[in-house]
Specification:
The protein has 149 residues and is mainly α. It has 7 helices and no strands.
Length: 149
Amino acid sequence: MKKILSILIIAFVALQFFQIDKTNPPIDESQDFIKIHNPSPEIAEQIKASCYDCHSNESQYPWYTYVQPVGWWVKNHIEEGKHHLNFSEFGTYSAKRQSHKMEECYELIEENEMPLKSYTIAHQDAVLDDVTKEQLITYFKEMEEKLKE
Protein backbone atom coordinates (compact mmCIF):
# COMPACT_ATOMS: atom_id res chain seq x y z
CA MET A 1 0.00 0.00 0.00
CA LYS A 2 2.83 2.38 0.92
CA LYS A 3 4.51 1.68 -2.43
CA ILE A 4 1.32 2.45 -4.38
CA LEU A 5 0.83 5.69 -2.46
CA SER A 6 4.44 6.70 -3.17
CA ILE A 7 3.97 6.02 -6.89
CA LEU A 8 0.76 8.06 -6.95
CA ILE A 9 2.45 11.00 -5.19
CA ILE A 10 5.41 10.88 -7.60
CA ALA A 11 3.02 10.73 -10.58
CA PHE A 12 1.02 13.69 -9.23
CA VAL A 13 4.17 15.76 -8.72
CA ALA A 14 5.42 14.83 -12.20
CA LEU A 15 2.12 16.03 -13.72
CA GLN A 16 2.78 19.51 -12.34
CA PHE A 17 5.62 19.95 -14.84
CA PHE A 18 3.08 19.87 -17.69
CA GLN A 19 1.27 23.17 -17.26
CA ILE A 20 -1.37 24.55 -19.64
CA ASP A 21 -0.83 27.61 -21.80
CA LYS A 22 -2.72 30.44 -20.12
CA THR A 23 -2.03 32.98 -22.84
CA ASN A 24 -5.13 34.53 -24.39
CA PRO A 25 -5.12 35.39 -28.10
CA PRO A 26 -4.98 39.10 -28.95
CA ILE A 27 -8.29 40.92 -28.78
CA ASP A 28 -9.60 43.06 -31.60
CA GLU A 29 -12.20 45.13 -29.77
CA SER A 30 -13.88 46.04 -33.06
CA GLN A 31 -14.98 42.38 -33.33
CA ASP A 32 -16.15 41.99 -29.71
CA PHE A 33 -19.87 41.34 -29.15
CA ILE A 34 -20.27 43.90 -26.37
CA LYS A 35 -18.41 46.62 -28.30
CA ILE A 36 -20.44 45.96 -31.45
CA HIS A 37 -23.92 45.65 -29.91
CA ASN A 38 -23.48 47.90 -26.85
CA PRO A 39 -25.94 46.23 -24.45
CA SER A 40 -27.01 47.98 -21.28
CA PRO A 41 -24.32 48.01 -18.59
CA GLU A 42 -26.26 45.43 -16.53
CA ILE A 43 -26.58 43.01 -19.46
CA ALA A 44 -22.95 43.56 -20.49
CA GLU A 45 -21.77 42.91 -16.92
CA GLN A 46 -23.78 39.69 -16.67
CA ILE A 47 -22.61 38.42 -20.06
CA LYS A 48 -19.02 39.13 -19.01
CA ALA A 49 -19.51 37.37 -15.65
CA SER A 50 -21.44 34.36 -16.95
CA CYS A 51 -20.05 33.81 -20.44
CA TYR A 52 -16.74 35.49 -21.23
CA ASP A 53 -14.42 33.24 -19.24
CA CYS A 54 -15.14 30.31 -21.55
CA HIS A 55 -16.57 32.07 -24.59
CA SER A 56 -14.07 34.85 -25.33
CA ASN A 57 -10.37 35.61 -25.63
CA GLU A 58 -10.52 37.10 -22.12
CA SER A 59 -10.36 33.87 -20.11
CA GLN A 60 -9.23 34.20 -16.51
CA TYR A 61 -7.21 31.31 -15.13
CA PRO A 62 -7.69 30.94 -11.37
CA TRP A 63 -5.12 29.44 -9.01
CA TYR A 64 -6.47 25.91 -9.32
CA THR A 65 -5.56 25.79 -13.03
CA TYR A 66 -1.95 25.47 -11.85
CA VAL A 67 -2.83 22.06 -10.40
CA GLN A 68 -2.84 19.27 -12.96
CA PRO A 69 -4.96 17.56 -14.16
CA VAL A 70 -7.50 20.23 -13.11
CA GLY A 71 -5.84 22.80 -15.38
CA TRP A 72 -6.11 20.47 -18.37
CA TRP A 73 -9.81 19.96 -17.67
CA VAL A 74 -10.45 23.72 -17.40
CA LYS A 75 -8.41 24.45 -20.55
CA ASN A 76 -10.42 21.84 -22.45
CA HIS A 77 -13.69 23.49 -21.34
CA ILE A 78 -12.43 26.90 -22.47
CA GLU A 79 -11.28 25.61 -25.86
CA GLU A 80 -14.59 23.80 -26.37
CA GLY A 81 -16.53 26.89 -25.30
CA LYS A 82 -14.66 29.14 -27.74
CA HIS A 83 -15.16 26.60 -30.50
CA HIS A 84 -18.93 26.92 -30.09
CA LEU A 85 -19.05 30.68 -29.50
CA ASN A 86 -16.33 33.29 -29.12
CA PHE A 87 -17.75 36.67 -28.13
CA SER A 88 -14.34 38.25 -28.85
CA GLU A 89 -14.63 37.20 -32.49
CA PHE A 90 -18.38 37.71 -32.87
CA GLY A 91 -17.96 40.42 -35.52
CA THR A 92 -16.21 37.93 -37.80
CA TYR A 93 -19.30 35.70 -37.94
CA SER A 94 -21.79 36.01 -40.79
CA ALA A 95 -25.12 37.65 -39.91
CA LYS A 96 -26.83 34.25 -40.16
CA ARG A 97 -24.31 32.67 -37.79
CA GLN A 98 -24.58 35.58 -35.36
CA SER A 99 -28.36 35.19 -35.29
CA HIS A 100 -28.05 31.44 -34.75
CA LYS A 101 -25.60 31.97 -31.88
CA MET A 102 -28.08 34.31 -30.18
CA GLU A 103 -30.74 31.61 -30.50
CA GLU A 104 -28.36 29.06 -28.95
CA CYS A 105 -27.59 31.50 -26.11
CA TYR A 106 -31.17 31.92 -24.99
CA GLU A 107 -32.04 28.25 -25.53
CA LEU A 108 -29.10 27.07 -23.39
CA ILE A 109 -30.02 29.55 -20.66
CA GLU A 110 -33.69 28.48 -20.78
CA GLU A 111 -32.62 24.82 -20.50
CA ASN A 112 -30.30 25.63 -17.56
CA GLU A 113 -27.34 24.28 -19.52
CA MET A 114 -25.41 27.56 -19.40
CA PRO A 115 -23.54 28.69 -17.52
CA LEU A 116 -22.21 25.27 -16.60
CA LYS A 117 -22.89 24.16 -13.02
CA SER A 118 -19.22 23.21 -12.70
CA TYR A 119 -18.33 26.82 -13.53
CA THR A 120 -20.82 28.48 -11.17
CA ILE A 121 -19.55 26.46 -8.20
CA ALA A 122 -16.34 28.50 -8.22
CA HIS A 123 -17.79 31.65 -9.83
CA GLN A 124 -20.83 32.75 -7.85
CA ASP A 125 -21.10 35.99 -9.86
CA ALA A 126 -21.99 33.83 -12.88
CA VAL A 127 -25.06 32.31 -11.23
CA LEU A 128 -28.23 33.51 -12.93
CA ASP A 129 -31.18 34.25 -10.69
CA ASP A 130 -34.63 34.10 -12.28
CA VAL A 131 -34.77 37.82 -13.03
CA THR A 132 -31.32 37.98 -14.62
CA LYS A 133 -32.02 34.79 -16.52
CA GLU A 134 -35.17 36.31 -18.03
CA GLN A 135 -33.34 39.55 -18.85
CA LEU A 136 -30.63 37.65 -20.73
CA ILE A 137 -33.15 35.44 -22.53
CA THR A 138 -35.12 38.50 -23.62
CA TYR A 139 -31.95 40.30 -24.69
CA PHE A 140 -30.64 37.38 -26.75
CA LYS A 141 -34.08 36.88 -28.38
CA GLU A 142 -34.18 40.55 -29.33
CA MET A 143 -30.65 40.33 -30.71
CA GLU A 144 -31.56 37.24 -32.72
CA GLU A 145 -34.47 39.11 -34.34
CA LYS A 146 -32.37 42.21 -34.95
CA LEU A 147 -29.65 40.14 -36.63
CA LYS A 148 -32.20 38.40 -38.87
CA GLU A 149 -33.18 41.75 -40.42
